[in-house]
Design goal:
about 675 residues, TIM Barrel, Rossmann fold, Immunoglobulin-like, 29 strands, about 30% helix, disordered N terminus
Length: about 675
Amino acid sequence: MTSYSMSDANGKLKLALATLAAFTTAFAAPAASEGMFPVEGKMLVGVNYWGSKAGVRMWRADAWDEASVEKDIAALAANGVELMRVFPTWSEFQPLMMERKYQCSPSLVLRDGSDEEIYDPLWLDPGAVARFEKFCEIAGRHNVKLMVSLVTGWMSGRLFTPRIVENRNPITDPEAVMWEGRFARAFVRRFRGRGEIVAWCLGNESNCMGAADSRAQAWLWLSTISSAIRMEDSSRPVISGMHSQTSDGFGPQRGNYNKWTLQMQGELLDLLTPHPYPAAFRIEANRGPFNGFRNALHPASQCLFYSSVSGKPAFPQEVGSLGPRMSPDWMSAKGMRQQMFTCWAHGLGAYLWWCAFMQTHLDYPPYSECHMEPELGLLNADEARTPKPMAKELRAFRDFRDSLPFGALPRYRTDAVCLVSEREEFYHQTFGAFMLSKAAGFDLEFVGADSRELPDADFYILPSGQGWGTYARRTWDELAARVRKGATLLVSRGFETGYIDWLGVTGLEQTTYHKWRKESFEFEGRKMSFADSYTAEQKPVDCEVLAKDSSGNVVVSLRRLGKGKVIAVNFALEKCIIEQEGEVVDNGFSNELWRIYAYAAREAGVKRLVAKDDPRLVVTEHPRKDGTALVVAVNTHDRPAEFPVRVAGRVGRVWNGMYNEGKLSIRENDGCVFEVENEE
């Protein structure tokens, strides 16, 4: 296709002038930046922003209202917002169309809706650019930083693509990708001098714009857009802007499901961004209330999962309860409160709510089409921008964070390494392991089994996969070697998972498989249950049986191997609590499967500063250089609670809770911080 016509002198002059302007702008220095997260351990809080008055139409000339935007950002800043993700709609900032001639052959590039000929490949709509410039000025006046989602061609269930790429796949069509790359370059070049902008985001869930037929196509799109951004500005991080990325980077490609992998995101980008909603189709997060234990940990766990495979930091870029259809405002506020504490405690850089304003008053697509999108705001869209309960919690958390005398939270300690398969989708197992360890009272470091080097540790956890290829044989052999040198390994095995030399490593001999089975068993004097699509009949040969099911089949065993130990669990423990057994972490923990993790931690010699009995108390320990430690404790009960705790040291100052004679008091769905000092 011919994008430009240079047949007349006027056209050549226009191109020359545009090229000169482009070179002049190209050498303008980017604004000095403190970085996306200038203080590690001081989590930023914010929102995803669309204007309260016009929503997705806010950049249009006939909808732009500078006074309204000023009131929006002033209200958000007053309610604690310090970072906003914003969306320069692709179709509004690059409104181009192709002039067609004989037999529909392409000719000149025109400004959509006019006969204006466009010769500058990095042309942007001047009016939209001027409006975004004003927007940046307003954000700066209110000390709000901006993360700009560049190629916003998808939003809230519909496409926003310019006519020049109409009926083209924005992900795989070369013409469409060319214009997207030009748009990214042009926008970054124009606004890289704005100090309010701290990061560039590829777009908004860009893989929703079109299907990729292969991982190579997905990689090419990611590489094109990220390279276009860095060509103009290497001083700011490039952020994914996508969610639903898979860890299945080394397994076979299946349909359209596992084309966008965490491995390629880590290869090409600086920060990854899960969008962890409790959607009806997400069984890992829809089994309990938004202010329950499961959803308290969902955003943090998904970020740690993304990081474990990609090797890059991650933060929840979109978080929300999905509104009254899933959770009333009072419950959303409490759930948000405990999520902010757990994300902060686990070292995440930011927490952004979706979205800034209620959109129930907007009567055009996508708001007129979808029952979910209009009710997700932090503030109401009335003239006063009335804060909803969630806004008050965001403000309260920021005030609490800023009131602390230590400024930033040191990194939390981990007690075990949990391997994450990169040969199948593994988030359910990762989240299951995270919840089990939290209930048991210790913390995990998650590591991609193929792309990351196996760290030295005294305690390893290998969650069950679904087949013989979940992990490479070398991973299994390396773990067995570590055990023989003194490490403890907890391995679960369900579905059709198999490991070489199972008998030699675990001391168990398998005789047969059974199909779907639900069983109960006793462990440490407590009745528990599980369900699995396969259950292996196993006979103890050289191990200690810790639990059997009702038929006498081994469920949990202990093998001493060399100087170390192997604890084997004969079902897919981690995935089971996500997909089969909701009562493990909801409904009062009536099924106490987490005690298997607690047992393994004791066998591995894990010793924590703070020991607790209630699985709903989530604790992280943050060692400081002076030998003391900060402890963050989150009460995931929906009621105020007093927790008996055993502290190896003297409890010093306490913030946002009370400690008295071995008991820690925290209000419902809230976090507490306290110091632990050596008693010497």
